[in-house]
Amino acid sequence: MAKTKILVKGYAKEIDGEEHASSTATLIQENGLNIIVDPGMDRKALLEGMSKEGLATGDINFVVLTHTHLDHCLLAGIFENAKVLDNSDIFSFDGRIGEHDGRIPGTDIEIVGTPGHDQFHCSVLANTEDLGKVVIAGDIFWWSDDEEQKTDRESLINHEDPYVKDEEALKESRNKILDIADYIIPGHGEMFKVKK
């Protein structure tokens, strides 16, 4: 069984006329492996979150990117011993590119295609003992800091995404994740329990 821990709560806000954003950065631990989903772009917050868990950048085995918007992936290169996964491939720092089979190698953690916000978007499904099925959903679900985070199904399905690439695909992905998950960790905002 996996353990999940939010290292950085994602945010999207304006301060003094400037946009500030960084995705939720989530640690998953399973079978002795340390995995970070969406390291974001707030280096100080990420390193502080890792330090609280007793981890250094060299301790991370895999980094999973739900998509390649820079507020989610800018820091992927700081993990010197990690391999980086996206929706279909595994990238190594020696230039090698391989494919994965929809799982993080050496684990039961699934990588699920969830297009819409971005055509190559994916989410990560971890089975945990304490929370059940936790989905790290990237920007399938996200809120700016000044928005109310409504978590009833209708609000979640229809929540406006100003960066959406394919609205119909996004709604399908949202429905798929809501059917699977017990808890969802959004790209920006608070983790929430799925109302069944």
From TrEMBL:
InterPro entries documented for this protein: MBLAC1, Metallo-B-lactamas, RibonucZ/Hydroxyglut_hydro
Pfam families: Lactamase_B (PF00753)
Known catalytic reactions: a ribonucleotidyl-ribonucleotide-RNA + H2O = a 3'-end ribonucleotide-RNA + a 5'-end 5'-phospho-ribonucleoside-RNA + H(+)
Gene3D superfamilies: Ribonuclease Z/Hydroxyacylglutathione hydrolase-like
Domain Metallo-beta-lactamase: 22-188
Subcellular location: Cytoplasm, Cytosol
Residues forming coiled coils: none
GO cellular component, as recorded: cytosol
Subunit text: Homodimer.
Function: Endoribonuclease that catalyzes the hydrolysis of histone-coding pre-mRNA 3'-end. Involved in histone pre-mRNA processing during the S-phase of the cell cycle, which is required for entering/progressing through S-phase. Cleaves histone pre-mRNA at a major and a minor cleavage site after the 5'-ACCCA-3' and the 5'-ACCCACA-3' sequence, respectively, and located downstream of the stem-loop. May require the presence of the HDE element located at the histone pre-RNA 3'-end to avoid non-specific cleavage.
Official protein name in the record: Metallo-beta-lactamase domain-containing protein 1
Species whose genome carries this gene: Candidatus Nealsonbacteria bacterium RIFOXYC1_FULL_40_7
